[in-house]
Each structure stands twice: as C-alpha cells, then as structure tokens.
From TrEMBL:
Keyword Transmembrane helix among record annotations: yes
Natural source organism: Microthlaspi erraticum
Region (Disordered): 19-39, 69-88
The name this protein goes by in its record: beta-fructofuranosidase
TM spans (from-to): 43-62
Keyword annotations from UniProtKB, A to Z: Glycoprotein, Glycosidase, Hydrolase, Membrane, Transmembrane, Transmembrane helix, Vacuole, Zymogen
Subcellular localization: Vacuole lumen
UniProt pathway annotation: Glycan biosynthesis; sucrose metabolism
Similarity section: Belongs to the glycosyl hydrolase 32 family.
SUPFAM superfamilies referenced in this protein's UniProt entry, alphabetically: Arabinanase/levansucrase/invertase, Concanavalin A-like lectins/glucanases
Residue ranges of every copy of the Beta-fructofuranosidase N-terminal domain listed in the record: 22-118
GO BP field: carbohydrate metabolic process
Amino acid sequence: MASSDALLPISAREEDPLLSSLLDGSRSDPNPETPRGRRPFKGLLAVSFGLLFIAFYVALIATHDGSRSHDAKLESDGTATTTSRARLAGVSEKSNDRLWKLSGDRKAAAFAWNNSMLSWQRTAFHFQPEQNWMNDPNGPLFYKGWYHFFYQYNPNAAVWGDIVWGHAVSKDLIHWVHLPLAMVADQWYDANGVWTGSATFLDDGSIVMLYTGSTDKSVQVQNLAYPEDPNDPLLLNWVKFSGNPVLVPPPGILPKDFRDPTTAWKTSEGKWRITIGSKLNRTGISLVYDTTDFKTFEKLDTLLHRVPNTGMWECVDFYPVSMTAANGLDTSVNGPNVKHIVKASMDDTRIDHYAVGTYFDSNGTWIPDDPTIDVGMKASLRYDYGKFYASKTFYDQNKGRRILWGWIGESDSEAADVQKGWSSLQGIPRTVVLDTKTGKNLVQWPVEETKSLRLSNKKFDIEVGPGKVVPVDVDSATQLDIEAEFEINKESLDKILGDTSVAAEAEEFSCQTSGGSTVRGALGPFGFSVLADEKLSEQTPVYFYVAKGKDSKLKTFFCTDASRSSYANDVVKPIYGSSVPVLKGEKLTMRILVDHSIVEAFGQGGRTCITSRVYPTKAIYGAAKLFLFNNAVDATVTASFKVWQMNSAFIHPYSEDAVRALSRN
Ligand code: DQQ
C-alpha cells in the first residue's frame, strides 16, 4: 500500500493512542474469572448469599426515605462532575472530554466554536429533543395508529444526569411531536433516575412497561408501569405500580449491576419471560425471569447467556428472526426456520455486539451458532461499527417488521455540548432482518418512510480512474440520501488476481489501523467524501477497500474515515469500519444518509453499517460539498449513483395543533 497525501490534500492526522486502546477493546482484568462450569448460585455460597440477600432486601425496603431529594449538582461547565456522577451511578458516561484532554492535544486550548458552527450541527431529520441531553431509546411501540418513542432524557442540562423518560409520537417514524415527560423520578425506587426499559403487549392488547429505577440508595431495581388511560392513543399519562419494585438484584449480583429489562416473550408453557443484563466479576451475563402478572417473578437457575471477559451487559435485547422470510417476527415467535439474536451493549467499550444463535425454550438458554464470534468478543458482529449504543428493537405490528433504534452520542467535548445546549441523536430507525443469503449476519436498512423526505434527485454514471477525485454537482450537500453501485473494471481485477507480485493484504487490513482513505492499495479505497469543503481540507470519506487475500480471493472492507472531518482539536475523529460480505455476482453498493453532524453509511444493503458524528468548521452550510474519489493505484471504478436532497422532518413541541397536523399526514 502506498500513501497519497497529494491526491487528497489534508491536514495531518495524529493517532490518539488512548482512544485506540479504548476502541480496540483490549482490557485488563483485575478480577479472576469465575471458573467455567462453576454455578455461582449453587451450594454453600447460595446459603450465604441468600442470607445476605434477605438482609439487603429488608434494608432496601426499610431504609428508603419515601421521598426524593434531587438537587441538580452540575458544575457550570458540566464536565468533570457529570463524568463521575454517571460512573458512580453505575452507567455509561460521556468521556470524550477526558479523552481529548489526555490525548496529544492536551496542552492546546479547545477549539473556539462559534454559534453559527454549533447551530449547523443540529440535525434536520434525525430524532432529537428540543434541548438538553438524551441517551438510550426506551419502550418503543406502535399503539392505536401512533408510533411511540420514549428515551432517557435530562430535562435540566446537556449532559447525563437527572434521568427521566422523554416521550414523542409519530405516524411514520420520521415526523414527530414531543409530548410531556412520560415518567419522572418521583418515587424512592427511581429517585436517582428512571432508567432504561421496554414495553410488552399482553394478550388483551394492553401495555406493560418494565424499567430500571435507580433508588434513593442507588440500587438498581426493576419497576412496572402502565398507561393510565388505555383509550388514549397518545399514552400521555403513566401509572407506576404501587407494589414497585417488582425485582431487586438477586443474591450474588451487585446493587449497581442489574438493569435494563427486555420486552417479554411467551414460553411454551404460556408464561412471560424477560432477561436482564448484569455481570459476575468480568463475565457479562443475562439473567432470566418468568412471570404471569409482571408483579411477581421467578428467577431461572440458568442464564440466557454469559460471555467471560466482556464486563457489564447493558440494554440486552433478545428477539427471533426468520431464516427464510423478509418480514420481522413478533418477540414470542419460535419454531423451525427461526433463529434468535442476543444483543448486549458493552458498558466497558460502549459497543453493541450481537450474535445469531439458537434459543431453548425449556430452560431459557441460548447458544451462538459460532462460538468464536460470541456476543462481545473482539471479533463478534456489531450492529454498527461507528457510534451506536444502547440500542433496542421492537416489533412493529403495523407493518410486520422489526425496527431497531440506536442512541448516537456525541464525539465532541461536553463543553461544546453545554455551549450548543443539546447532546445526542437517535439514528434513523432501521428495519432489521437476518441476511437470508449468508444466514450469518443481520441486515439493517433505514425504514422505508425515510424515502418520504427525498426531494429532487440527480443521477450520475461516472468512471473514475486511479487517483482521481471528482466533484459531484449537487446544490447543497448537508442533507443528502445517496445510493450508489460501484464496479471495478474487469481488466484491473483480472490483472491484480493474476499478478503474483501483488502482495496479499486482506489478512492484515483493518479500517481502523490501516491508515484511512489516503492509503493507496491496488483496488481501493474508493467512495464518496461527504461534508467536504471545496479544497478538501475537511472531509469525511465513506469507502470500500478491496484487498487480495493469501488465498488470492478478494475481501471487501467498508469504512468511514473521520480523521480529517474537522479542524477542531476537541472532537474525537476515528476511522471506523469492518469487512463486508460480498456474494458472487453482487456489485458493491452503499447508501449514505448525511444530516448535518451525522453520517450513516450502509454497506451491501446494510450488512455492515457505520454511523459517525462529525463536526466540520469549514464544510458547513453552502460550503459543504460532495466528492467522488478513487484512491486505488491500479483500478478504474465505475460509480452509478443517485443523490437526493433531503427535506427536514417535522419535529415539533407539544400542542394539540401539532398532534392534529401530524394525524392529517
Ligand atoms: N443508560 C441507562 C441505563 C443503561 C445505560 C441510564 C446505557 O439503564 O444501562 O441512563 O446507556
């Protein structure tokens, strides 16, 4: 591979060793692992844990003060205190601020953001609250003609803390009206936060919501809530069950390691079953409970699953996928031609990992099809190779599909978030199905309603020779939907495959560590540079890199390189990506959604997805451009693509008029 700084003029990129080690997922393990096969809940241990548990439960119920003292304790700049608050509370925090301060830029002053730059970062068609902090998606559902979206929300600041449930409704998952907060922290059992939870439809069509409360003593417990008026399609008011909490940490589980109940599914015996993420030492685990009424629960002796050395599992998701059909499955569906997905959000790395496997109804366990890529292992599959965390799916009975929501955090500093007054987005909701062609991975795709935002489009067929950069003539490049097919010219392919002097590189290549889009290989990289200024001094390339392997076969990688996305020094600018399966006869395809500070990229129909947050300082407003590039040394590439300008979504504050306007659409 050669490097070509001349082709794509850029400012030099500095590696951030601290960031690399975090993204890398390499971790040291201070605690000895629970030996394989040892059952931590059994035998003598269980007796002592049992006694401890009774004492703990009595203390938990007896010592709560029944009221909530809840002062906002944010520092004026919202940084250091917030970080430690989240960590102390036992949940994910935002750590970019610390990251850049500890990186090579630590002596430099933070970039001087002005209001015009910060205003541009707000998105036009992604879901976000009017202001302040948002994190995990919660309890998504479709009810009486409305999509409901709940989310972790801080009503008081643009940083994590004081968490309650925000709520919004939509007819199409694109246009939204914000509603009043669904649940606030007004009980001892959620005084330190109304944390993540999920919805279940009971057999009679009524809804129950299970969520984690962080109690007045910061113990993680599970609570039950339900709509006050089932006839209200907007589900405005929620009642918390008088007998809450319905579940407390079981023996052997630490008080801050028990959170995020899933949607329930039916067992063959007709009971409801849920799973809840936790950890035992460094082993990530998913506990399983059966219930008939959501008020009393029976804990299974077995775990849904466990993976050593993966740390705390947050926001576990568990659902069936069809091996044959393209539609989604309701959570309780099981049987032949059904596989089950386990997804866990790794608290240590902030990565959502999933695996495809087999579920056993009889004892509530699940095993991965391929144990070498089990949930949370370094090589395991990810929903998204960029910024995407604490995701949750739901079955949309309206359209017979399963939809995935993911929290897209910021990659800038907390100081900048405080200055702009908001933090975080939700990704465009994606349909998620098993890839029936490979049988090994999921495919994700923006919900079809996204197309309703498409305005004018332009179609292009462009042949790009090695080392060429071509401006793409679109009026404005800040809100785009791009669909493209690439074909490497046959002579180039034959030449490379037949030429033994061309070294194999597929085994060593990785988007993250192989130098990004300026490094020139025989057959790549090629793709688009989005959010680029005229001189390409800022740009975010989204590209394929095709590499020859030792077996002389080609392997394709799909990457996004944010390392030159901004002149600012106080943002994290990673190179993201992974390999992507390309089957015989398939062209290389990509789709990219650009919406101000977010770039979502879908490779090969959504087999590999990459979401990036980028914060250009020059390539904004009218100065944001789109380029096509081919940085390969040997290959000529033909790109056939369409670019749509994207409309802004209607995302309005709560009023009856706004709800009426949305119902008319
Ligand atoms: N966020 C919630 C927790 C969850 C974490 C708190 C994941 O319930 O584990 O805001 O981002």
